[in-house]
Each structure stands twice: as C-alpha cells, then as structure tokens.
Amino acid sequence: MTLPLIAQSGTPTPATLSGLTPDQAVTFGATTVGPLEITVLQVLTGPDADAALMAASPFNQPLLETLTPVVVSLRVVNRAPVPVHVGNDDFALTGSTGIVRRYLDSRPPDPVLDITLQPGEGTEGNVVFSSGVDELGRILISDPSGLGGDWAVRYLRLDDSTVVPVAAPQAPNTVGASAAAPAGIGDLVVTTDWALTLLDVITGAAVFDIVDYRTGALGPEDAVGESDGSVWVALRFAITNNSPEPILTTLPANAFVLTDTEGTPIPDMITITPPRPDASGSYGPGATRDGWVAFDIPGEKMPTLVRFLPFAPFTASADARFFTTGE
User: Which domains does the chain have, with CATH numbers?
Assistant: First the structure.
C-alpha cells in the first residue's frame, strides 16, 4: 500500500532523540528524522504475535520456547531524493542482550512491508523478527541497504522500557598476540573492537550432532573423515563487541582462519556452516554472545592455531590474535 505525502495536520510526533545510536533511540510512536521517516505504529509479541503469524500463513512455524516472535507495524516515508526499497531485510531487532536478530523465516501479516518508494512516497506495512522472551528494551534498527553505509541507520524503541546502558569498553590486552604464545581455552583476548574467549573445541561426530540440515546433509561419514579423509572441527567462542563507538559492528564469517605454527594462514582450508548460533553477524554496542566457527580439515594437515583478524585484507593496523585448538 503506497500512501501520498502526509498533510501537515497529520504529521506524526517528531523525535526528541536523534535515533542515531541505541541510547538515543527515538521513543515509541515518534518519527525518525533522516532519509527515511519511520514511525512504529504497533508491536505484537507473545501469544498475540503467534496468533497473527499462524493466521498469516500455514507455513509459519512456532519458535523455540526461549524465543518470541515480534511483529512490528511501521509507517515509512521516503525523504531521500532517490527511490528506496524498504522491506524486512532493511530492519533488525536488538535489546538488552545486544544480540542483533534479522529476518525471521516467517511471512508477516498483511500488509507486508516490501516496496520501492519513490521520493516523497509513504507506506505502511509489517515486519517480523524473533527475540528472547526475557529481552528488555527492544529496539528496532533501520539500516536500509539501498542507501549504503551507516549514515542512514536509525534506532527506534519498541516499548516504553528503559534502554539498557552499554557497558564501558574493556582495555585491550596482549593475550594471544603472537603465534608463539597463543591463547588457550578460557583466556580472555581483548582488542580495540572485540573481546573474546575460546570456550570449547569439538571434532568429528560431536560437530555433526549439533549442525543443522545444511552442513548435516554432507553426512556423518564426512564429519569423521571416512569419505575424504578430512575432519570437521568446531570452536565455540564468547564474543563481545568492544568498540569504543556505540554502533553496530559486524563480525565477518572469515574473521577466523587456520594457520601454521608461524601464524601464516593455510590456503585451501574449507570453512563450513557452523553449528548454531553462528559467531559471525551483527553485534550491538557491548553485545556478548556465544557462537561457533567450523572448518573441514584434511587429517594430514591438522593445524593447531586459529587466527582472529576481522577484515584482514582491509585492516590498516592489524591486531591479529591466535588461539590454540589444543589438538
């Protein structure tokens, strides 16, 4: 549904907060200022959201008991000088945990927000996410992919609860800074942007038992090396966004690579889709979560070191850290 420009008498309440950072998220019902004017009209959670999703499509599935769907009704007006597409993928949800959750594999109730808006056009529609049932201070993140960069990112509160303050960043240390002295299980490694601890290392059948259908389709024989001689290895980390800036930070899937004993990355090592939760993805300011990374490693080349260095090809001042798998 595309709407004409809003008349002055119907203009929503302007935001008194900037919406540029989570702690400045605009209040529920207010409107962001920027290339997209966004207003949260309604939020459904718990049984109400479950009922709305079940009515929206017979293919929508219930979530785990620890999660609740969150259905958000939005009004969006394009104030940019160019057409902008808006849909579920242009939004995310976070809250007190700082974990950023993207598109839920469910069809939102009608009207679904999925449209290209010409300059000055507006629309109303629904988006849907998952959230922890105990998540406090839920915040909607608007980061329209069609506008690029982070200049258009805005944050909107989904309720009247207090936004949970972000913990102060930890001071960087030198743990694991050398391949000759790698961090082990339980060691806290802190860089300017990240703090992480290796929690566990598993191999073979133990990895197969907890991967989803994507990696699991390769079969248990592949996990233990019976089919091609390579063995699956998965590492579980606790990872915190330690950036001094209160912004979303992305941990890329290739932040972890296998290296030789000198710290040189080993070519042709296959990264496989890890068990859930995946360590890669977006982290809100101060967010901490456990996540996995996984590799398919030829048995005769079993390395013992993993290097952590996000965006390695583009990092001007590299602060590589090394972990030993203990294998």
Answer: 2-157 (2.60.40.1240), 188-324 (2.60.40)
